[in-house]
Amino acid sequence: MENFSEVLTLFLSVDNFFAIAVGVLVGVVVGAIPGLTATMAVALALPFTFSMEPVTAILLLVGIYKGGMYGGSITAILIRTPGSPASACTLLDGYPMAQQGKAKKALKTALYSSVVADMISNIALIFFASYLAKIALNFGPPEYFWLICFSLTIIVSVSGSSVVKGLIAAGLGIIVSTIGLDAVYGTQRLTFDNYNLMDRVSFIPLLIGLFAIPEVIEFYTSRVAPHIRTAVSGASLTWQEFKGLLKTIVRGSLIGVIIGAIPGTGATSAAFISYSEAKRTSSRKANFGKGEIEGVAAAESGNNGVAGATLIPLLSLGIPGDVITAIILGAFMIHGLTPGPVLFQENLTLVYALFCGIMVSSFVLVFVGNAAIRYFSLIADIPKTILLPIVLMFCIYGAYAVNNSTFDIGLMLAFGVLGFVFNRTGIAAAPFLIGFILGPMFEDNLRRTMLISKGDLSIFFRGPITWVFVLFTAASLIFAIRRYWVARKEDALG
Amino acid sequence: MEKSELQFGAASESHCGRCNPNSILGGIFSVLAAGFLFYVVPTHIEIPAHMQHPLLSPRFLPQLAGWLVLALSILLMIDGLVKPPKRTETDEFRRGVPIVRQLLMVAAGVVYVLFFEQLGAIGSGVLACVLLFLASGLRNLWVYALAIVFPAVVTLLFIYVLNVPLPPGTLWESLSLI
């Protein structure tokens, strides 16, 4: 009871509610603007959180994440441009609906499916995260070492069209993560005697550089695209229609939860699995792909079911499930918190305050989403010619704010150029970030294990938990290799 | 990530012609990885005098990552030779971009990197926004008013609402002293 009152004291503040509202709003707006992504928004918002309380800061970022997940579907439905890969599935039926004059119905279906899925996902997070954290208390460095090895395999799923290029990016990310003073011996590593690099490469300039700057450079090195205007029209979603979709939404949400809880599987696959499952079991399967409302509900519930669930491995094990949770992990660290079982032991009040905020964010999404549908044309009609100089300004200010150093601005632009080169050469930037974050964790746990065992390698296979993670890692690798070969075969065929 | 995954699929096969981009990329990465492994690591990562185990070496992870990059780069190079490239719409969209547009973008970056502390956050923000608006060929005067309003508002927001200090500009401070 005492803990409960502490949680409420920590959570019930104007700042927290404001952060959630602003976060969801920013997420929806950014997600709704073609070309801007929720990842970019979360990265840009990170410097704003420096002076905030940890709970407020994390809630702001989670709000953006959730808003962005829904916002991506708006452009998918209206202009056939998904704001995120996960929304690509939504356009299969959403866009035909919009063409048939049912844009408003499609958008409302997407919104309410997203909200329901989000709530189910949050409940799963609240129930499973603490349980998993309790199990994780039994983990020592060897168990963590294998867990991180398993997590490194998520690189394959975020590698885009080329696994080889993705792995190269991850390797580069790991190399960059080793810059600075060595944690055990204190020797300089790859600092080139530059004191700015002694304390590792700053996370925020790297993040903003990789995910926001390439969009700016890409815009100014391409011809100006004609600005597409949008319209929201037609009848809205009725209660009867929504009731008829509930089964599909709940099923999609559960698929999203299961997939989201596994690091690296991601919202895209959840959306497509949910969609194909809905199609398989629907009585109107012939209408899928031609403007079927159930298709929109299935896709959106699948991709939003992932949002809360990806926080399960993050909070309980300290392992990011995707790129946005990797950024949120960085936010935890910036605020002096380390996600994982220890967080549940030492900051239980904070964790439950976060859970409260995450639940509230789903309700906020209803209001913000509805407003976005009403005022969407205003949001999406901001031309990039005006928007991107402002985005660049936010990037610069954000990078400078970390250490009050112009070195960080240069660093950010350098990573921006790298991200741009990645874009042009077909290399996904996400593996680079995953490598940068997981590299030091891998090294720390490897070294701790070696120090505990005094060099005895058998410690890596000391018990059932290590074996479970060894098997998971092996299975994930086999799956990745199989995926690589299947992709190659398909490529060769056509 | 989202954007990248969608865009990259198209971009990866975008360059065609006599040279295969994947082979070139693999070749460049191979050279860089070899340089890293055989020059940078030995000269820029010291090995401590008393090291208990090779796995504890400060060079272990950089070398592991370096070898990974080298091996995969060679694989990419071979892969590129086997698979011919394709041209995509994205590639067409990148042709014929005026050089002035790109130069103005670079100039905006230079303003931020070299003159951020001298001109201050507002000064450099205004200048960079004007350069980027020019790069897009904007002609409406009210748009250029935004180039002044936005940097000022955002800077004040950072400083007074979020308590994040931004430079006021050493140049203006010197001028005010005169």
List the helices and strands and how they pair.
The complex is a heterodimer of chains A (494) and B (178).
Chain A: H1 2-11, H2 14-32, H3 38-45, H4 54-79, H5 91-99, H6 103-136, H7 141-152, H8 154-157, H9 163-177, E1 180-181, E2 188-189, H10 203-211, H11 213-220, H12 239-261, H13 266-281, H14 293-309, H15 311-317, H16 323-334, H17 341-346, H18 348-380, H19 384-403, H20 406-425, H21 430-453, H22 464-493
Helix pairs in contact in A: 1-18, 2-4, 2-18, 3-4, 3-10, 3-16, 4-5, 4-6, 4-14, 4-16, 4-18, 5-6, 6-12, 6-14, 6-15, 6-18, 7-21, 7-22, 9-21, 10-19, 10-20, 11-19, 11-20, 12-13, 12-14, 13-14, 19-20
Chain B: H1 2-11, H2 21-44, H3 60-82, H4 89-93, H5 99-135, H6 141-161, H7 170-177
Helix pairs in contact in B: 2-3, 5-6
Inertia-based shape of chain B: flat
On the 0 to 100 scale, the average pLDDT of chain A is 83
Order of helices and strands of chain A: HHHHHHHHHEEHHHHHHHHHHHHH
From the alpha carbons, calculate the radius of gyration of chain A and give it in angstroms. 22 Å
Query: What's the helical proportion of residues of chain A?
Result: over 70%
Structural class of chain B: mainly alpha
